[in-house]
């Protein structure tokens, strides 16, 4: 990804659908962007789960890298962009593998994100209870 630049994420830009047992210290959203591969975001049970990102600047979304925990990956996830009327519209759909290695999901064509939120919505977890566990989340722009 030599032509891609990682977008700097900070905690004020993130919202998540749920946190396991409301234990934000051990499983909260900050663990997605803390730079440690030993901490994770762990959702509650149930489908669907999501991560919402509100950028501080406009950029051209090119790809997303995610490291799930094996057994707790989504079978499918959708990148959705919030329209002016508040509804979310799908811009890309991906089918992750169920393993604990970093996976890169490249959009077919870069999508311009302004300062409106966009979501990664996870469906059909490999976990029987629908939990999603993510150790690493990286967002890349087209440069």
From TrEMBL:
Residues 1-93 form the F5/8 type C domain. Gene3D superfamilies: Galactose-binding domain-like. It comes from the Eukaryota. InterPro entries: FA58C, Galactose-bd-like_sf. This is F5/8 type C domain-containing protein. It comes from Adineta steineri.
């Amino acid at each position: 990804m030599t032509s891609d630049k990682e977008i700097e994420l900070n905690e004020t830009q993130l919202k998540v659908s749920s946190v396991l047992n409301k234990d934000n210290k051990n499983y909260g959203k900050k663990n997605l962007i803390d730079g440690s591969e030993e901490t994770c975001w762990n959702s509650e049970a149930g489908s669907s789960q999501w991560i919402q990102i509100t950028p501080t600047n406009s950029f051209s979304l090119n790809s997303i890298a995610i490291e799930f925990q094996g057994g707790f990956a989504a079978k499918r996830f959708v990148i959705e962009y919030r329209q002016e009327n508040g509804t979310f519209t799908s811009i890309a759909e991906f089918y992750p593998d169920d393993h604990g290695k970093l996976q890169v999901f490249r959009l077919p064509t870069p999508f311009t994100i302004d300062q409106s939120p966009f979501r990664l919505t996870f469906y059909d977890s490999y976990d029987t209870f629908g939990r999603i566990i993510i150790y690493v989340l990286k967002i890349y722009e087209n440069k």
